[in-house]
Amino acid sequence: MDKWPYEIQHLDMGEILRAVASNRWQNVRKSLKGLPTSQKLIALQMWLFEGQDPEEDRVIQVHNYINALKRGGQLNLNNEVVR
């Protein structure tokens, strides 16, 4: 995957802190370390749609992670893989 195809929501810090506290999410997040960005996006998509519909916390977790990839220079402002 060379681009994150979904729109990213604006997130409230309180929502982020609550959602990322999940132990399951922390395990997923740790499993992404060291993967190429394109593989991270695939794994994030799988996490997002683990159920039939994206659960609110999963949306917040993934959007927060995508924003971190942007801040880290791994994605550009169009959510395309840079490195």
Characterise this structure:
The chain is mostly helical and 83 residues long. It has one domain. Helix content is 55%, strand content 0%. It is built from four helices and no strands. Helix 1 packs across helix 4 (56-71) and helix 3 packs antiparallel against helix 4. The longest helix has 16 residues, at 56-71. The model has no long low-confidence stretch (mean pLDDT 93).
Q: Could you state the order of secondary-structure elements as H and E?
A: HHHH
The Rg value, from CA coordinates, equals: 12 Å
Largest sheet: none
What is the count of DSSP helices, taking H or I runs of 4+ residues?
4
- As a percent range, the share of helical residues equals 55-70%
Decide which structural class fits the backbone.
Answer: mainly alpha
* Outline type: globular
Q: Determine the strand fraction and express it as a percent band.
A: under 5%
Residue runs with pLDDT of under 50 for 5 or more positions? none
Measured distance between first and last alpha carbons: 12 Å
The averaged pLDDT comes out at 93
